[in-house]
Design goal:
Elements (H helix, E strand, L loop, with lengths): L2 H8 L4 H19 L9 H15 L3 H4 L7 H30 L6 H16 L2 H12 L3 H25 L3 H9 L4 H35 L8 H9 L3 H31 L1
Helix pairs in contact: 3-12, 5-6, 5-8, 5-10, 6-8, 7-8, 8-10, 9-10, 10-12, 11-12
């Protein structure tokens, strides 16, 4: 009997735990299936699905290649601008909040309070923030930018905190031993180590915000979502196809280039 077989035989048996876990998963799965209601799935829905697919195959090329404010390229550019600006603002604001949430940087009571605040920010969905900001600023891209910024703060702060707390403490201890302040520890001991990871996470968030910005347009927060819902409500399936094609191409391109950039940043 080799070493691997001995290790496997010596491992503790977790049959009871595995059975309990499987039962819990099955119970939750069955309970979730009770929410599925197929009574509303009619032939009309099948026809609409066929019309959407037909619209994608036969899009409105005039809308797809028109470069005025009503064309798909302009609407995609506006959506990308909302996502980009919201990500930049959110990342800038998330950095100090992340440091204030890191228990290895600030006292634990302060870190606990800031983390509670960030948890509260993350509990509210982006579309709810969008509806709130529309009431404050009115419909348009500015409401979308504010929504993207606020939702980005919640997620980026959490990821930044995880990165900060995984730092090598030797550098921080060395800086503290020579009497450096908290700001100096951040400036000379942390930022040089974290800048690449922070940038990589921000690019990842921009990729997510691009999809969210398209959805926010459905509630009037700018971008391509509003023309999409108007075209669907008007049964203009060729226009729906044009918008969906443009959106898919944009998201695929952004995802391709963002992955390339993130790999380059992380691996050097």
């Amino acid at each position: 009997m080799n070493t691997v077989e001995k290790q496997l035989l010596n491992e503790p048996k977790r049959i009871v735990q595995n059975v309990i876990t499987a039962v819990i998963v099955i119970v939750f799965l069955m309970w979730s299936l009770t929410a599925v209601d197929l009574s509303n799935f009619t032939s009309n829905g099948v026809d609409i699905a066929k019309n959407i697919l037909h619209g994608i195959v036969t899009p409105n090329t005039d809308l797809l290649f028109t470069f005025n404010t009503n064309g798909v390229p302009y609407l995609l550019l506006e959506t990308m601008a909302i996502a980009f600006l919201g990500t930049i603002v959110g990342a800038i604001l998330a950095i100090p909040l992340a440091f204030l949430s890191a228990s290895n940087i600030v006292p634990k009571p302060i870190a606990f309070i800031i983390r509670l605040l960030l948890i509260f920010v993350r509990t509210i969905p982006a579309i709810v923030y969008g509806l709130m900001f529309i009431r404050v600023t009115g419909p348009g891209p500015f409401a979308g930018v504010l929504t993207m910024a606020l939702t980005s703060i919640g997620m980026l702060s959490k990821l930044f905190v995880d990165i900060i707390e995984d730092l090598e403490v030797n550098i921080l201890e060395s800086l503290e031993s020579i009497g450096c302040t908290t700001f100096e520890k951040i400036r000379y001991g942390i930022i040089p180590q974290l800048s690449a990871m922070f940038l990589s996470v921000a690019i990842y968030r921009f990729d997510m915000n691009l999809r969210d910005a398209a959805i926010l347009g459905l509630v009037g927060a700018g971008g391509i979502g509003a023309p999409l819902i108007f075209a669907m409500n008007g049964y203009k399936w060729s226009e729906v196809g044009s918008i969906l094609i443009g959106l898919m191409v944009l998201i695929l391109l952004i995802e391709f280039f963002s992955n390339k950039i993130r790999n380059k940043i992380v691996r050097g």
